[in-house]
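re the bet — no i am not wrong, look at it urself. input seq straight from the record:
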Amino acid sequence: MKLWSGRFSAELNDIAELFNDSLPFDKAMYRQDIAGSVAHCKMLGKCKIITASEANAIVKGLEVILSDVESGKLNIDGAEDIHSFVENALVSRIGDVGKKLHTARSRNDQVATDIRLYLRDGIDETVKLLKALVTALCRRAESELDTYMPAYTHMQKAQPTTLAHYFSAYANMFLRDAERLIDCRKRVNILPLGSGACASTTFPIDREYTAKLLGFDGVCDNSLDGVSDRDFAVEYLSAAALVMTHLSRINEEFIYWSGEEFGFIKLPDEFSTGSSIMPQKKNPDVSELLRGKSGRVFGELIAMLTVIKGLPLAYNKDMQEDKEPLFDADKTVRLALTVFTAMLEKLEFDRDAMKRASVGGFSCATEIADYLAARGVPFRTAHEITGNIVKSCIANGKNLQTLSLDEYKSFSPLFEQDIHTAVTAESAVSRRTVKGGCAPQEVKRQISTLLSKLESI
C-alpha cells in the first residue's frame, strides 16, 4: 500500500509506477533509513509524543528488520521507495503502532536525512582511502629521492627533477582532496529531520536530541532549506570530480610512460591486459579505465547541478534524481582509489631510462643561464647567450654535456671547467634546495610535512 493512497481513488498507472519507482537504487540507504527512523522514534518517545512502550516496540521492530535484511531473511522489494518498504515491513510486524513512526516527519525531510547519513559514511571511507594513497605515494617518494627524470612543460622536457619530487606533487594534490572532503563533511553533517514537508511540524519535537543520537553537528536552521537543499551534494560531487581529475592526470602519464617511446614504467602483470589478436601487447587498461571513469563522475556533477538549477522551493520530485549520481560517484571514487593504490605499490620504474631522459632536450639550459647570472651577467643577457649555445648545438648535432670548454668559452669567457658539472642532472637537482624544490633533502622535508598533515586529519 502506498503511504499516500488515502486521497486517491485509482491505482497508479503501471508505466507511471515504473517511472516513479526509486526502490531499485534508494534501497542502498536501508541502513541509514532505519538508523534515522530509530533516532526519530526515540525522540518521539522522549518528547512524549508517543508512549514509551510504543517507542520501544517500534525501535525493536526496526532493529529486527535491519537484522533480517542484513542476514538475507528479508528482501527489499514490493514498495515504491526504501522509506515505504521499511514502514510497511514495520506495520506488518508490529501492527498499527508502527504507523505512529511517521508522526512529525515527512518523506521529504526523511530522505534528506538518509542522503546526508549515506554521504557522511561515504566521505569517511573515501578520506581513509585518500590517506592510504598519500601514504603510499610518500613511501614511494622516499625510495626514489635519487631517481632522476625530466620535468615537462608543454609536454616537452623542461628541467631535471626526481621521481620523488613527482610523487610528492601528487601526494599534495590527494591530500588536498582529503581536506576538501573533510571540509565538505561539515556541511553534510547538519540534520534536516524535523523540517517536515516544508514548513516543519506542530508537534513539540526535540531536533537537537535527534541530531545528537545520529551524530550530527547541528540542525538545519530553516525548514524550507532543510528539505530543498542539495548544495552539499553538489559540493561532494565537485570534490569527487577533483579526486578523479588527479587520478586521471597521473594515469595519463603512466599510460604514455609505459610505452616504448618513453619506457619509464614496467607495467605489473596483475594490472595489465593483453590483446586478442596481437600476442605481444601488454596494455595499461587499469590506468585507461581510471582515466575514463573521471568523465563518469564529471557527468554526475553536471547532472546534479542540472537537476537543482531551476527548482522552486521546496521539495520537488526532480530530487529523486539526486541519488543515483551520488551513489555512483561514491562507488566509483572508492573503487578507483583502491585499485590505483594497489597498482602503485606494484609499479616498477626503469631508472636508467629516466636518468638518460632527464638531460635530454637541452633540459639543463637553465643551469647555464643561472651559471652566468651567478657570475654577474644580467639574467636576460645570460638567457640570450644560452639560447645561442642551444642553437649552435642543434646546428652541429651536439648537446650541452658534450660541448667542450673551448666551445663554451666562445660564447662567454666566464665559463670554466665546472660548467660540465653544472649541466648534469645530479647538479641541477641537488642545487634546488629552495622550499618546494627537488633537491633530495628538500623533498625529504616535503614528505615529512605530508605525513605530519596526514596525522592531523
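see?? The CA atoms of residues 38 and 175 lie 36 Å apart. told u. also The first helix runs from residue 14 to 20. so pay up
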